[in-house]
Design a protein that fits this description.
The chain has about 240 residues and is of the alpha/beta class. Helix content is about 35%, strand content about 20%. The strands form 2 sheets. A 5-stranded parallel beta sheet has the order 3-2-4-1-5. It has a 5-stranded mixed beta sheet with strand order 6-7-10-8-9.
């Protein structure tokens, strides 16, 4: 996937698996084809990105890869240069750490810059834990909002949960949010204490993995069941 210098390369958004699943069980062949053809990558973690690339395309030369890291330590003013290969006619891939790039994952900033530079952005099909959880929840998929992480402070978190529940009730909107896996159990305890008994809560953990767990119940029902969510990637969805 290289072009002449007169034609910019494209920016490919490349999803990965959500865990240890065999890649080709959940990823289309287009992902393999892109990985085999692209040598320039923007990734969250170089080590895991190289491991994924090797799994997908074992014959690909690792020394030929040019990798830039995009994470919380990346200086914002260095990001535009990540797209220089595109301007020279090479395609660049944004490779997610898990799931789809730029959705609850780094990448949005480089995509925005690509649009500013008139570089074509090509999103490839792959798993998104947010969309899969919403699909499986039975909650409102016509009107929903993702809030990312809730406040860590207990008082602020409880206020945030009440505000989300109130907003959900007023406009019939499914509210989605996540938590650092080792704090999942504490968040669940807050949910069953703070929310109204009739509010529906879906918990979707380990999506696409062998231990996949997806359940939707009322808060009243959840008060009689405590799932083990410790250190498990999970999405929480509520509808009041």
């Amino acid at each position: 996937m290289s072009k002449s210098d007169k034609t910019p390369g494209k920016l490919y958004l490349i999803p990965t698996t959500l865990g240890g699943t065999a890649p080709l069980e959940v990823l289309p062949i287009s992902i393999k084809q892109a990985i085999e053809a692209i040598d320039y990558y923007i990734v969250e973690n170089e080590k895991t990105a190289r491991r994924f690339i090797k799994t997908i395309a074992p014959r690909k030369s690792q020394p030929s890869l040019h990798i830039e890291q995009l994470n919380k330590f990346t200086e914002p003013d260095t990001i535009p240069a990540f797209l220089d290969p595109c301007l020279k006619g090479n395609h660049v891939g944004v490779l997610s750490e898990a799931g789809s790039p730029a959705v609850a994952d780094p990448g949005a900033e480089v995509v925005r810059i690509a649009h500013e530079k008139n570089i074509q952005v090509v999103p490839l099909v792959g798993p998104s834990s947010l969309i899969l959880a919403l699909m499986a929840s039975g909650l409102n998929g016509q009107n929903f909002c993702f809030h990312g992480y809730l406040p860590i402070d207990a008082t602020d978190r409880k206020k945030s949960l009440k505000a989300l529940e109130r907003s959900s009730r007023e406009i019939n909107q499914t509210q989605l949010f996540i938590e650092t896996p080792y704090r999942n159990d504490k968040l669940f305890q807050d949910l069953v204490k703070v929310l109204s008994p009739s509010t529906l809560l879906c918990i979707a953990a380990d999506i696409t993995l062998p231990g996949e767990y997806i359940r939707t119940k009322s808060i009243e029902e959840w008060r009689h069941e405590t799932p083990d969510l410790h250190k498990r990637p999970a999405i929480f969805l509520l509808l009041a």
